[in-house]
Amino acid sequence: SPTGARPVRGGGAPLRREAINRPVIERIIRVDHAGEYGANRIYAGQMAVLGRSGVGPVIQQMWNQEKDHLKKFNELMVAYRVRPTVLLPFWNIAGFVLGAGSALLGKKGAMACTVAVEESISEHYNNQIRTLIEEDPEKYKELLQVIKQFRDEEQEHHDIGLEHDAEATPAYSVLKTAIQLGCKAAIFLSERI
Amino acid sequence: PSHSYTGQGGQESEDYESEEQLQHRILTAALEFVPEHGWTAEAIAEGAKTLGLSVAAAGLFHSDGSELILHFVSECNTKLSELLEKEQKLVQLGEAQKKPIDEFLRHAVEARLRMLIPYIEKWPQALSVLLLPRNIPSSLSLLTSMIDDIWHYAGDQSTDFNWYTRRAVLTGIYNTTELVMMQDSSPGFEDTWRFLENRVADAMTMSNTASQVQSTGEAVVQGLMGAAVTVSNAESSRAVT
Predict the structure, then answer these.
(1) Is residue A14 domain-resident?
(2) Structural domain boundaries, residue B52
(3) Which residues, by range, are in coiled-coil regions (chain A) (predicted)?
């Protein structure tokens, strides 16, 4: 049944055995986990190329925040017993390649990639916040808090990217559009498989 | 669709029972007659009779016993979950030892397969019905949720591709052991449990080997990188002198 009461793991997990809209929550957690995993790999790729450059510390700091995000979603995934997307090995490679590839275009390229990805992620988190509020803001209070906080931090990354001359990248709008299309496809697939 | 027998003013009567609940009761009652009649309309008819219903109630179900078999599988899975949940609570309260993974998996699979013993003569028939295209979505879903339950109680916390490998491996172990059990005539199915023990041990070895291979691979890569850096340093220092 869609509102199945599967036992939820974790001391103090607030939704233990309460009927939650499993299909919706599972999708949200699966795709967000995949997204944070991909973001981690993107920053890893960027650091591999630009780690020792002047912009290295900035990228490292954003990467550290993404690591925290991933850690949180790992916990939520276990607590809600959600299956990870089967595409994880693919996002592992694709994320790294995107990060390294954009960094090979130089510091501005890396920042453009960051702006594109973080804008997509922020929009995506906003959609999820809307969905959860429409469902039941009280029941999903904890999850809403987490997503709102992460949305704010991704927005910060986006702004940092702009501050570091992302828009001065050659073919900026082409690059941005291409990356954002990729993000949309990744989100669509990771929600489902 | 559930029929609700409501009285006036929308108040539900004391004897309210949905069609789904009624079917549930009939199928549960029918299980008693499966060893004799197989997974058939006859067993369902007999079950309906014990509940004081007409044998025509068997007409509510498919003639190949699909619903009866799926009901049985679902009930067994529920019993297994309840058993594992109870045992987990005992461990949490400190009243029992936490089992190591291989022992836990063996225990869970054995407990689940033992539920087949009263019906073992007719189980091959049930397996073939579960493989009918019409039933595959349901039987697959029941199988995957049972395997996922076992891993959950075993303490699996993987959030990467291991999530899939572990479940695939355990599904393989469960299915092959089930097939062995169908053909096992040893006392107390001891051949089956020994087979199960070996398969679980194989899986543990495989996973140890896999992580060893990975560590070795990583070490080799590190070594090569170190060698490359050394060579390039040597080249550049040679170029200077």
Answers:
(1) no
(2) 19-63
(3) none
Structural domain count of chain B: 2
Q: For the segment A130-184, what is each residue's pLDDT rounded down to a tens digit?
A: 999 999 899 999 999 999 999 999 999 999 999 998 888 889 999 999 999 999 9
ipTM for this model:
0.84
What was the pLDDT predicted at B4?
46
pLDDT per residue over B136-177, tens digit each?
999 999 999 999 999 999 999 999 999 999 999 999 999 999
| Together in a domain, B138 and B53 | no
Q: Any idea what the CATH number is for the domain that residue A144 is in?
A: 1.20.910
- B94 and B132 in a single domain? The answer is yes
pLDDT digits (tens, 9 = 90+) for A65-90: 999 999 999 999 999 999 999 999 99
List the domain range (segments joined by +) for residue A32.
22-191
Nearest to A84 among B148, B152, B159 (CB): B159
Are B194 and B91 part of one and the same domain?
yes
Closest-CA residue in chain A for B85? A7
| Rounded Cα gap, residues B145 and B171, in angstroms | 11
Which of residues A52 and A18 earns the better pLDDT score? A52
How many distinct structural domains can be found in chain A? 1
The answer, yes or no, to whether residue A124 has pLDDT greater than 90, is: yes
In a domain, A11, yes or no: no
Q: Per the structure block, which two tokens stand in for A15?
A: 């939704």
Average pLDDT over residues B207-226: 83
Contact A88 B157 (CB under 8 A): no
Rounded to a whole number of angstroms, the distance from the CA of B180 to the nearest CA of chain A is 30
- pTM attached to this predicted model: 0.83
Across the interface, do B152 and A9 touch by the CB < 8 Å criterion? yes
Other C-beta atoms within 10 Å of A111: how many? 29
Does B109 share its domain with B186? yes
Residue A31: list chain B partners with CB under 8 A.
none
Q: Which residue of B has its CA nearest to A70?
A: B159
Question: What residue spans of B131-189 are helical by DSSP H?
Answer: 136-154, 162-182
Chains A, B: CB contacts under 8 A, how many?
A: 23
Q: Give how far B158 is from chain A: nearest CA, Å.
A: 8
User: CA dihedral in degrees (A126, A132, A135, A136; nearest 10)?
Assistant: -130
CA–CA gap between residue A30 and residue A46 (Å, rounded)? 25
A10 domain-assigned = no
Q: Could you tell me which of A106, A99, A116 has the C-alpha nearest to residue A174? A: A116
Angle at A32 between CA A50 and CA A18, to 5 degrees: 155
Q: Examine the domain organization and report whether B90 and B182 are in the same domain.
A: yes
